[in-house]
Inverse folding.
């Protein structure tokens, strides 16, 4: 900000130097020659006195010129110019007093020139208004009190302007031009300062982003290692608790079966959570690989239906699986697709009671390529618009009370989204509170690792068209 003010001052000083030096150096002689001629024409009785007075301006102008050239600060230059302008105005006022004829057109011209002299310089503009109020208005009042005729007034205006007023008008125009230029310069400097400020902020942001990325990658690598270390002993716990359950049943130790079942269920929950964390950290660290292979989708769907049956039965839901007959051999990552369907189905089973859950699989064409569309629809809890916008974020649950009521980690949908993108497609959600939800997955039938994939916007448009 300080730099900006200093720069602005420097520019203003330069500008002032230019104006004052031009006027005092090059314009003063020709201007005063013209004035003196007008003096002879309009006020011949004072011609010599006026010439003397006007000539006084020359040494004043040259002195001002010298000091302005030497000026190093704006304040100093302003003071010199003000002194110059005031001396100029004083001389003109002496001329007016000498004439002492307020109804003379020449008098009007002199008044105009005084005003113009002060109004010309941007740094004396405050005085400009004062001069207009202090000199011009009383002058007009005096003229009116003398009851001038219409012709007198016309003479005053016309000759007044022609005598010295034309120059004044030019000066006033110049004054406003300079004011505009100063404004423009200030605006430009302000803009530059703003750009500089933003550049600094941008650099800081880039640095912060890089640091955050590094930290995030380190965190993901750590989690990936930790999750692996946790899974091994956990699998042992689950395995042994299942073994002990069977032994307890065989030996008739029924009192232990209940506790062992709890250990087994808790272990499995924990394993699910760790798997989720492992998946998400692998994805974030860029270590999740896609393994593309050919497989029969119909067979996979039938398989999944069998595995999912207990989930749907638990809440007394009816499950309907529908697929187009031409849905068969596809090329994709079977494990990831299976996990996506499994996650969506378990969510639907979890958040729906005594309802209907359906999975519809169809083949569609996008840009002349075959795509698969999976619609997992349920008639369960549904979500609000606000919830819909955040469910795909990791560790986010549509409603924080969900964890208490239904358990879960808030990772499932985030992983699904990442997986769908890895499979060359995307996932979309349409939901209405208390009515139900439809998760739609779009993936290409033939996934090719090196092929450029279709934008999510295009896919969403395809879906929206089909929805309506
Ligand atoms: P979680 O392990 O908590 O289920 P998800 O990422 O799978 O994590 O789901 C995030 C949240 O989205 C859930 O907690 C739930 O609030 C909401 N949600 C997901 N699927 C459905 C659904 N079919 N119906 C209603 N809400 C759902």
């Amino acid at each position: 900000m300080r730099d900006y003010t200093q720069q602005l001052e420097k520019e203003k000083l330069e500008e002032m130097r230019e104006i004052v030096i031009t006027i005092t150096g090059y314009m003063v002689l020709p201007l005063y020659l013209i004035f003196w001629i007008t003096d002879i024409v309009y006020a011949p009785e004072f011609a010599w006195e006026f010439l003397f007075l006007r000539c006084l301006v020359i040494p004043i102008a040259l002195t001002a010129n010298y000091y302005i050239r030497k000026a190093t600060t704006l304040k100093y230059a302003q003071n010199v110019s003000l002194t110059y302008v005031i001396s100029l105005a004083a001389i003109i006022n002496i001329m007016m007093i000498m004439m002492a004829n307020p109804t003379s057109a020449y008098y009007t011209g002199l008044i105009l020139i005084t005003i113009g002299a002060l109004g010309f310089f941007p740094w004396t503009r405050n005085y400009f208004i004062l001069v207009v109020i202090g000199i011009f208005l009383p002058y007009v009042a005096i003229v009116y009190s003398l009851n001038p005729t219409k012709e007198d007034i016309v003479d005053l205006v016309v000759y007044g302007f022609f005598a010295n007023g034309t120059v004044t008008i030019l000066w006033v125009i110049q004054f406003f031009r300079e004011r505009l230029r100063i404004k423009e310069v200030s605006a430009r400097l302000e803009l530059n300062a703003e750009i500089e400020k933003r550049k600094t902020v941008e650099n800081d942001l880039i640095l912060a982003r890089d640091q955050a990325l590094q930290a995030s990658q380190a965190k993901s690598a750590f989690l990936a290692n930790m999750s692996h270390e946790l899974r091994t002993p956990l699998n042992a716990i689950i395995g042994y608790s299942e073994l002990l359950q069977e032994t307890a049943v065989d030996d008739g130790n029924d009192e232990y079966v209940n506790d062992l079942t709890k250990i087994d269920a808790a272990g499995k929950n924990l394993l699910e959570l760790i798997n989720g964390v492992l998946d998400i950290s692998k994805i974030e660290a860029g270590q999740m690989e896609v393994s593309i292979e050919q497989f029969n989708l119909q067979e996979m769907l039938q398989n999944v239906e069998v595995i999912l049956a207990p989930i749907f039965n638990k809440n007394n839901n009816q499950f309907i699986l529908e697929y187009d007959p031409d849905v068969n051999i596809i090329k994709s990552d079977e494990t990831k697709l299976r996990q996506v369907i499994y996650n969506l189905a378990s969510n639907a089973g979890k958040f729906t009671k005594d309802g209907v859950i359906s999975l519809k699989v169809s083949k569609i064409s996008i840009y002349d390529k075959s795509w698969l569309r999976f619609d997992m629809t349920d008639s369960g809890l549904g979500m609000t618009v606000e919830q819909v916008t955040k469910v795909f974020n990791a560790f986010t649950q549509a409603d924080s009370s969900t964890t208490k009521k239904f358990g879960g980690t808030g990772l499932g949908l985030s992983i699904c989204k990442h997986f769908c993108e890895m499979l060359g497609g995307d996932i979309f959600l349409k939901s209405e509170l208390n009515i139900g939800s439809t998760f739609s997955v779009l993936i290409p039938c033939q996934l090719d690792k090196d092929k450029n994939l279709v934008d999510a916007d295009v896919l969403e448009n395809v879906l929206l068209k089909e929805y309506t």
In short: The pocket of adenosine-5'-diphosphate is lined by residues 343, 347-348, 351, 378, 380-383, 391, 397-399, 402, 408-414, 437 (CB under 6 Å). The CA atoms of residues 110 and 177 lie 23 Å apart. The longest strand covers residues 356-366.
